[in-house]
Amino acid sequence: MPALQVKDCPAETYELLRECSARENRSISQQTLTIIEQYLGVRAPEAAPCSDAGHLAPAVASNKPEMAELSFLARRQRTFERINSLPSFDLPEGFDDTADLIAAAREERW
Questions:
Q1: Distance CA 25, CA 7 (A)
Q2: How many CB atoms lie within 10 A of CB 39?
């Protein structure tokens, strides 16, 4: 997996990130990745991360939630298109109905 290193980060920015990550129970690295993913629309925006500090990730603070939502929907659509493009296959004769298999699995848990 690629690594990302941020150089020359202002002390104030780092401190805000550290405080935010502590409130969100994440490491600084995890929080940084979460903010980047939200900004790029890779991850659906959370309900105002670190809002009590008055510092929101740009995807949440500006008009970008709509863009992030559109990006999320576009990714979801692409996922379903990929699923639909997979080859179909026939189940063998006498294969149990999937609904029956799920019901039996649920009964076993209880």
A1: 24
A2: 19
Instruction: Please give the Cα distance from 56 to 62 (Å, whole number).
Output: 9
Whole-prediction pTM: 0.45
| Other beta carbons less than 10 A from residue 72's beta carbon | 15
Quick one: average pLDDT of 11-17?
92
Largest CA distance in the chain: 66
Confidence of residue 84 (pLDDT cuts 50, 70, 90): very high
Q: Residue 51 has what DSSP assignment?
A: G
Over residues 73-101, mean pLDDT: 87
Closest of 63, 29, 66 to residue 44, by C-alpha: 66
Residue 8 DSSP class: S
Q: 101: phi > 0 → left, psi -120 to 50 → alpha, else beta; which?
A: alpha
